[in-house]
Amino acid sequence: MKALNEEQLQRYKELREAVEESKGEIEQAIEEYNSALEELPNIDGTVDEFNQTVADFNEFCTEVAGDIETYCEERREDNEDWDETSEGEKCQQWFDTWEEEMDEADSYLLGETARPLSANGLPKTPTLPTSLTAL
Q1: Each residue of 33-68: pLDDT tens digit?
Q2: Interatomic CA distance for residues 39 and 46, integer angstroms
Q3: Nearest to 33 by CA among 115, 96, 107, 89
């Protein structure tokens, strides 16, 4: 191929125009999104505080579970069959409950909040180099 034929050139122009139009639409949508986002209250501080509260809760649960585990281990040292006793089974269930609390608390942590978008990251509209229109 040495040059685009009329049909190809016409198709190129149509597609380029469609890309330009679509690019304008996405840029407008991004502007509207960012404007709406600016009107929303900033919750980053609240999210951070919530996550810290969850982390504090989880740390407390970890400490309690560690204390329970230490208590159980001390009883095991005195009696190898302690785990099989009613008290040993109850202690293990109590420990398991605290571990479940820790696992559940981890699921409460919140991730990133909405952030503004930028049209700068959009690809530029393709331009057919002159060297490709004809050789």
Answers
A1: 888 877 877 777 888 888 888 889 888 888 888 898
A2: 17
A3: 115
d(CA 84, CA 82): 5
Q: Retrieve residue 70's tokens.
A: 């230490």
By the 8 A CB rule, do 98 and 68 touch? yes
End-to-end CA distance of the chain: 8
- Asked if 86 and 4 touch (Cβ cutoff 8 Å), the reply is no
Q: Which two tokens stand for residue 47?
A: 């999210």
Tokens of 36: 């709406």
Token code pair at residue 81: 């069959």
Which residue is associated with the tokens 């001390």? 74
56: left (phi over 0), alpha (psi -120 to 50) or beta: alpha
Question: What are the structural domain ranges in the chain?
Answer: 1-40, 44-110
Q: Give pTM, 2 decimals.
A: 0.53
- Cβ–Cβ under 8 Å, residues 127 and 12: no
Backbone angles phi, psi at 7, to 5 degrees: -65, -45
| Contacts for 49-53: CB closer than 8 Å, 24+ residues apart | 50/108, 50/110, 51/109, 51/110
